[in-house]
Design brief:
The chain has 229 residues and is an alpha/beta fold. The chain has one domain: Purple Acid Phosphatase, chain A, domain 2. The chain is built from seven helices and ten strands. The strands form two sheets. It has a five-stranded mixed beta sheet. Strands 4-5-6-8-7 form a five-stranded mixed beta sheet, covered by helices on one side. Helix 1 links the parallel strand 1 and strand 2.
């Protein structure tokens, strides 16, 4: 059994299919850790979650877009900020109502996973604060760790930031800085390579560090299909 980690999918089921195929992922034996934000952006959130439900060894980490989608499911409220950031495509993919199995998958998502001193979290953590003193406002939204890691990478330095051996984060797209594969800085792996915009979806074997990417996701859908236009 191999363990893979995947960045923010954002409704891009065609990209997800490419990554699973190109990585040789075995849905019966391999394990996939999804860093969150499976929802919102491209028009196939329903297909993404349906495909994920077919994987026998899936670990879901909650992303901020998944959190906002669950808020719509629970309250029926369509917040304008969420709608403009891909929520409208999520609603359309479900024709206004999410099946219970899909809701349960999102509700089963964890705020983070710690395993063998590796941390998997959607947005990041505050490096100088104990984990039990942090909450979802940090795990889902905060970019402090990303900014520290990015500054190190851009300055050419490479030193540990936390006491974890490895940290895997999504949320903050690195394609904005010219990277279309996962990027490491210190112990931090930045996995969001811009699949929700004009970048690619990235998936990586956490033992070998071999990365597998989709085509640029905006080329897989008709113009105007997602937030990228």
């Amino acid at each position: 059994m191999s363990t893979f980690v995947i960045g923010d999918i954002h409704g891009g089921d065609r990209a997800l299919g490419q990554c699973l195929t190109r990585s040789g992922f075995d849905p019966d034996s391999d394990r996939l850790i999804c860093l969150g934000d499976v929802c919102d952006g491209w028009p196939e959130t329903r297909q993404v979650i349906e495909r994920l439900l077919g994987l026998k060894n899936l670990i879901m980490i909650l992303g901020n877009h998944d959190f906002m989608t669950l808020d719509w499911v629970r309250t029926g409220v369509r917040h304008p900020g969420w709608m403009s950031q891909g929520g409208s495509n999520t609603i359309a993919s479900y024709d206004g109502k999410m099946p219970e199995a899909h809701v349960q998958l999102l509700e089963s998502a964890s705020s983070y996973l710690i395993e063998k001193n590796r941390l998997f979290v959607h947005a990041g953590i505050l490096p100088d604060k104990p984990m039990d003193e942090q909450g979802d406002d940090i795990f889902l939204w905060d970019r402090t760790l990303f900014r520290i890691a990015l500054d190190q990478k851009l300055s050419g330095t490479d030193r540990p930031i936390t006491s974890f051996d490895e940290i895997y984060i999504g949320h903050s797209p690195v394609h904005n800085y010219g990277w279309l594969e996962p990027v490491r800085s210190g112990e931090v792996w930045m996995m969001d390579t811009g699949a929700g915009w004009t970048g690619k979806l990235s998936m990586m074997n956490i033992e070998t560090k071999e990365a597998f990417t989709s085509d640029p996701v905006h080329t897989l859908y008709p113009p105007g299909s997602g937030r990228a236009g």
